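User: My collaborator and I are trying to settle a disagreement about how two of our proteins should look. Neither of us wants to argue from intuition anymore, so we agreed to look at predicted structures for both before our next call. Could you fold the first one, then the second, and keep them clearly separated?

Assistant: That sounds like a sensible way to settle it. I'll keep them separate. The first protein:
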Amino acid sequence: MKKYLRHPVIQNALALYSVQFFEYVLPMLTMPYLARVLHPAGWGLVVYAQNFAGWLVLVLEYGFGFSATREIAQRRDHPGECAEVAAGVAGAEILLLVPAVLMALTARFTAPEFREHPGYLWLALLVALAQGVRPFWYFQGLESMRFPALLNVGGRCFYTIGIFLFVASPETAWVVLLLQGSAAAIVTSIIFGAMYRKVAFEWPSPRAAAAALKMGWTIFLSRSAVSLYALANTFILGFFVNSTQVAYYGGAERVVLIVAAMTGPFLQALYPRMSHLALRDRASAAQTARLSLLVSVAGGLVLTGGVFAGAPLIVRVLFGPSYTPAIVVLRIASLVVPLVAASNIMGMQWMLPLGMDHMFNRVVVTAGLLNLFLATLLSYRFGPMGTAWAVVASQSTVTLGMWMSLQRSRRGFWHGEGTAEGVPQPEGQA
C-alpha cells in the first residue's frame, strides 16, 4: 500500500484532490452567506464580474495547462530546455494580455453592469490576471504538485476568511473581488518564485512566444469550444423559458459539474505521466491508458448511479422544495459523467500526449457546434429537459467521435502499442 501511495501520480492526484475539495467546499460555505448579506443585486453583480473574469482567464491560460505541461514532462531531465519553455510561455502570456485588455475595454462600454459599476470590471481584470498566468503547468509537468496545491488551498482559505471578516453589506460587495484577486496574486507570485528557483530566468523572445502560442493553439481552440457550449446552454435556454425554469437547469448543471470534476484531479495528475511515457515507452503508456479507462468509467458509472438515485434528496437539500422540477433534469444531466470520463482518457490522456491535437480538436469543435444546434432545437421544444438531453447527445458525440477516430487511424491504446502493427503513423493517416 505504501508503495502505491509513494507513486508520483497518486501523490499528485491526492494534492490536486485537496485543491478540488477546497474549491468546492469553501464556496459552499460562502455562497449562502453572500447571497443573504449582499442581497440579490449585490450578489448578482459579484457573480457577473466573476463570470467575466472566467472568460479572461480562459484567454490568458490559453492551452498551456496541457501543451506546456506536456513539454515540461518530456524535457524534465533537461533544465535548460525547461527554461526555454518557461520563457516562451511568459512571452505568449504578455501577448495574450492584449486581447484580454481589449475584451475588458469593450465590456466597459457595452455591458450595462460595467457601464454603471466600472470598478467591478477592473477588479474582474485583476482576478483574471492573477489567476490566468499562474504557472501550475510547470509543476504538473514535473509531477510535483504538492507545494503549489497546498499554497492554492492557503489562498482559498485566506479569501474565505476575508469574506466573513470584511463583507457585511451590499456596499462591500466589491471587497469579494478584491480579496479574490489579492489572494490569487500572492499565490501566483510565490509559485513563480518557486519555478524560477528551479530553472534559470530567460527573457522571452518573439520567436519563443510565437512557438508557445502555436504549441497551445489547438488546445485553446478545443477548450474554447467546450467552454462555449458549456456557457451557451443556459443563455440559449433563456430565450425560450422564464428565469424559474432556467434555474432548474442551472442548479442541475452545477451539481453535475461538481460530480464530474471528482475524476478531474486523477486525470490531471496522470497527464504528465502519459506525456512522459508516450515518447519513451509506448507499450506502458497504452497499458496505463487501458487501466485508467476502466477505473474512470467504472467510477463515473457509480457516481451517475448515486446522483440518479439520490436526485430527490440532492435537490431538496441543496436547492429546496421549490426546485422539485430539477430532479428529472439532474437525472438526465448525470448521464454525461461516465461519458466525460471516457472521452478524457481517449482525448486528454492519449491523443494529446501523442500529439494528435488536430484529431482531438476536430471532434470537440464538431460536438460544440452540434450542441449549439441541439440546445436551440430541444430547449425550444422541451425546455430544461431538452437542454439536458442536448448536453448528453453532444458529450456522446465527443466520446464516440474520439473512439472512431482512434479506431480508423489504428492509433488507439487497444491496438497493441497504439499504432498500426506497432509502427507510428503521422496524425490523420488511416
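The second protein, kept apart from the first:
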Amino acid sequence: MVKVKICGLRRLEDAQIVNEAKPDYIGFILTPSKRRVTIPEALAISGALHPSIRRVGVFAGESPAEIAQTASELSLDGIQLHMDTTTPFLDALAYELGHCLFPRIPFVWQRIPVPASAADASDIEESLHSFADFSRFDGLLLDTRKEKSDGGAGLVFPWKPAAEYLGRHNISSSRIIVAGGLDENNVSDAVAFFLPYAVDVSSGVETDGYKDRQKVLRFIETARKAQVHE
C-alpha cells in the first residue's frame, strides 16, 4: 500500500485532522514559505500528534549545521532537502547529524525538480548534473519547478518525462515520493502511473490556505485504495 505524507502542518487543528486520518508522514516547512512554522510551533504540533505518524522537516537553503540542529530539537524522523544538494553539502550534513543526539539518524529525502515545461528526460537531467549521488538518499521526491516556483505551488509536473528519467537511470519506484499538484482527483492516477513508495500533498488538501478535514480524509482514502506494488 502506498504511503501518504500530508505536508505543511501549521496549526494544532492540523494535528487533530491528521490524528483522525492517520497518514504515514507529516511535514513541517522549516524554511521561508507561507506555510513556514517556527520551532516552538512545530514542537507544539508535534506534541499533539499520534506517535505512529512520522515527522519530516522540509529545508531549502539552510546550512547543514542549521538543519541538524533543528532536526535534533524537533526529534525529526526525516529530513526533506528541497534544494539542489551537492556532494560537499551532503557530506557536511551527514557529519553534523552524526554529532547530534538522535534515537536514530533521520532518513533523508532529496527533491528532484521536474520542469513544468519538460518534454523528455533530457530536460530534467540538465538541472541535476551537480547533485550528490542519488544512491545516498533514502528517498527521491519528484516535484514541479516553474520559473521562481520550486514546489509547493500546487502544480502538476509532466509525468511521462519524469518516468522516462527514472527508467533511464534505473531508479526504482520503491524509492520515489510523488508530489506536485496532487489532490483527491488525480492521486489514483499518480499511484497507478508511478507505483511509488509514497505520495505527498499540501495545497491539494487545503481550503483557503488551511488543511481541510474532509479533503485530507478523502485524499488518504483514495490514495490507499489505488493500484500499487505490494
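Some points you might bring to the call about the second protein. The CA atoms of residues 80 and 109 lie 5 Å apart. The two ends are 6 Å apart (CA to CA).
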